[in-house]
Amino acid sequence: MENSRRRFLKTAGYSILGVGAGSMLIGLSAHPTKAAGSGPSAASLFKQRPENREAERWGMIIDTRKLNESICEKMQQACHSIHNVPDIVGKFGNKKHEIKWIWPTEFRHAFPEREAEFLTEKLSHKSIIPVLCNHCDNPPCVQACPTKATFKRESDGIVMMDFHRCIGCRFCMAACPFGSRSFNFRDPRPAIKKENPDFPTRMRGVVEKCNFCAERLAVGKNPACVEASEGAMTFGDLNDPESEVRKLLAEEFAIRRKPNLGTFPSVLYIV
Ligand code: SF4
Ligand code: SF4
Ligand code: SF4
Q: Which residue's CA is the closest to the ligand 2 atom numbered 8?
């Protein structure tokens, strides 16, 4: 009995070591001298310019009444093209390895708990709405990351990624209850339709997700999806009672995804 227990523990130990080493290898293979890919460095990209937009806590309000499938596609197109998000499905036909920063989904999939069971005339459980990283105020992905490759920027609440520090362990993906993160199972660069030289590309073995367009905020712009949303999205400071987002929230009924988990999403949906 004791012998078999010892044998089990030994095997389990080797397995854990194997998995850990595997992850490390994936991570390391993604980090030759140029680290996470090519393009401008994070330091230059997010460096605050005089026109930098500031907030205590950036947030986004999505008005589901103003959305349709075509607007959702335009938002995704705007985001993915400027952020060099690869079209893995189009290039390799592999849906499981898809990389997504923002994507359309049915309302019932975004809100599976059916907080709002009876919806309005304009919104059904099959209506298409966009989902993205919620930039949670209490982000479990940040707590799970062993290298601080993902972190909450204390100045404005954005949950950022430092691709250079990511070792590809995917703990953050397991911790995120919204499926907001994607993992590069292969080199994504051949699947980028038209590379934007002003934003870094990523490499195999790195996790990525929406960054609330931190690089655009740094030069005084709105997020690209907000610009493409035809008025369905509003972006602003959730902590400022005078901001447009707070004024909207004072007038309209808005819900957050999976509120019972206590992550406090900064993306809200008017229903
Ligand atoms: S949505 Fe997921 S990835 Fe984004 S901050 Fe929240 S837990 Fe992290
Ligand atoms: S995979 Fe996620 S948890 Fe692991 S290092 Fe990268 S960001 Fe951190
Ligand atoms: S906020 Fe920026 S990064 Fe996030 S989904 Fe919108 S366009 Fe993409």
A: 145
Query: Do 206 and 91 meet the contact criterion of CB atoms below 8 Å apart?
Result: no
Q: Looking at domain 31-270, which of 3.20.20.70, 3.40.640.10, 3.30.70.20, 3.20.20.370 is its CATH number?
A: 3.30.70.20
pLDDT digits (tens, 9 = 90+) for 234-268: 999 999 999 999 999 999 999 999 999 999 999 99
| Domain map (residue ranges) of the chain | 31-270
Measured in Å, residue 181 CA sits from the centre of ligand 1 at 8
* Nearest of 37, 86, 40, 20 to residue 197 by alpha carbon: 40
Q: Which of 127, 79, 130 is nearest to 104 (CA)?
A: 130
Give the binding-site residues of ligand 2, using a 6 Å CB cut-off.
144-145, 147, 149-150, 166-172, 207
pLDDT surpassing 70 at residue 212 = yes
Q: Where are the beta strands (DSSP E) in the chain?
A: 58-63, 102-106, 128-132, 150-152, 159-161, 182-183, 207-208, 233-237, 254-255, 267-270
Which ligand number lies closest to the CA of residue 133? 1
Centre of ligand 3 from the C-alpha of residue 222, in Å:
10
**12, 20, 71, 106, 207 from 161: Cα distances, Å:** 32, 21, 27, 27, 8
Question: Which residues lie below 8 Å from residue 20, measured CB to CB, with a gap of 6+?
Answer: none
Q: Which atom of ligand 2 is nearest to the CA of 171?
A: 3
pTM, to two decimals: 0.85
Which ligand has the minimum distance to the alpha carbon of residue 78? 3
How much distance in Å is there from the Cα of 227 to the middle of ligand 3? 10
Hey, whose CA ends up nearest to atom 3 of ligand 3?
210
Site of tokens 């038209």 = 194
Q: How confident is the model at residue 157 (pLDDT cuts 50, 70, 90)?
A: very high
